[in-house]
Design a protein that fits this description.
Layout: H1 2-34, H2 41-61, H3 64-74
Helix pairs in contact: 1-2
Length: about 80
Amino acid sequence: MKNHLLRIALALELAWIAGGTMAIFQLPAAYRWRGYWAIGGEWLLILLAAAVGGWIGWGIIRPARKRKKARQHRYC
């Protein structure tokens, strides 16, 4: 159980890194373009980057045993 929670925590950390990196660059650019703070498409990009970061993180961190088992049943 402890290892499972650690994997989830690491995947979430990768998601925060991806979303935070996107926010650092995207929010100031949108502010300069508009001239005021608002909620627009840049927030969707940040959420998408966080979701993709978490998905990639979970794929990297999950046990190789499960990946191997999934590959065996893919073409049957």
